[in-house]
TrEMBL record:
SUPFAM superfamilies: UBC-like. The lineage of its organism: Eukaryota, Metazoa, Ecdysozoa, Arthropoda, Hexapoda. This is Probable ubiquitin-conjugating enzyme protein 17. The gene is LOC103520831. GO terms for cellular component: nucleus. Signal peptide: none annotated. GO terms for biological process: negative regulation of apoptotic process. Keywords: Transferase, Ubl conjugation pathway. It comes from Diaphorina citri (Asian citrus psyllid). It comes from the Eukaryota. Transmembrane segments: none annotated. Residues 1-62 form the UBC core domain. InterPro entries: UBC, UBQ-conjugating_enzyme/RWD. GO terms for molecular function: cysteine-type endopeptidase inhibitor activity; transferase activity.
Length: 62
């Protein structure tokens, strides 16, 4: 799935640090990015509900 995100300032401004103009979505909660410890997936405290809540646009577009 690809998402086309509109940006301003000739791609110099991003609306969200996890959304890229080439359609990529960075999901640090799933350990696809080296984020801060509190942003990363923790098998003891994390849930799939957190994924749905933190990235609703990803699932609405699909």
């Amino acid at each position: 799935m690809m998402i086309n995100l509109a940006t301003t300032g000739r791609h110099s401004v991003r609306f969200n640090p996890n959304l890229y103009n080439d359609g990529k979505v960075c999901l640090s909660i799933l350990n696809t990015w080296h984020g801060r410890p509190e942003e990363k997936w923790n098998a003891h405290t994390s849930s799939f509900l957190q994924v749905l809540v933190s990235n609703p646009v990803t699932f609405l577009v699909a």
